[in-house]
What we know:
The chain is of the alpha/beta class. It folds into two domains: 6-223, Alpha-Beta Complex (Spore Coat Polysaccharide Biosynthesis Protein SpsA, Chain A), CATH 3.90.550; 227-268.
Amino acid sequence: MKTPELSIVMINYNTPDLVQDSLRTIAKYVRLNYEVIVVDNGSGDKSKIDSVKLRKLLPPEKIKVIFSKTNLGFGKGNNLGAKDAKGKYLWFLNSDTLLTDDSPSKMVSFLDKHPKIGALSPLLYHEDGIIQKNFFASFQNLGSVTIRRYNDHKIDFSKEYFTADIVVGAAMMLERKKFEDVGGFDRNIFMYLEDDDLCKRLSDVGYQNAVLNSAKIIHLEGRSIKTSSARKKYYYRSQTYFWYKHNGRLATLIMRIIRWPYKLFKTL
């Protein structure tokens, strides 16, 4: 098999039907030379990936399944898949995504022409066609403290792309060498904010992160982890770690005090 241009890395954690639906759209639309690496992240016996079924959706040489005995979390699971990647570019694609055209080819072509771009995202849409508002964000510096702000300004669709401090990991593409050079996803983050952290490290070494307006993906947001209590647990744990890593002990302590009522009453 010719060396692929693109390695698509996808995590399964008890969502085998979503994985199959996503792979069907990949098989239908993607025309560049690619491979798919599916990491089964310690799913239960009834929810494990059936590699035989997957090889009926894609040519056998294009699909590889890696089984982890335990749930490694989003970042470590993707790191595991990336280790086996052969493509020049990595595309970390959530299992709850659906392609509607050959957007990955557009993204690869864009990255080939823009070596200063680190992580690249397509536009993300809900199933009903409404654009999602939380697929990119910015960092704001308050003195020595860095905080995350979701962007709420209107997108200028007349431009080829726009830059953003953070692009979310649901459909994040970047050059494999850049991913490896900055150390991949932080192994200490189980789930949530691992994309913020990776984007920050890419920015810290001089790359810009961006969104390509011509690339569009449907994101069935929240299908891979369904309970609010689980989302809250993982999010706040990751938030505490991210703050400590990038802002220090004192700022993290103050943040946790301010966060306390939100943690009690706010749903995620």
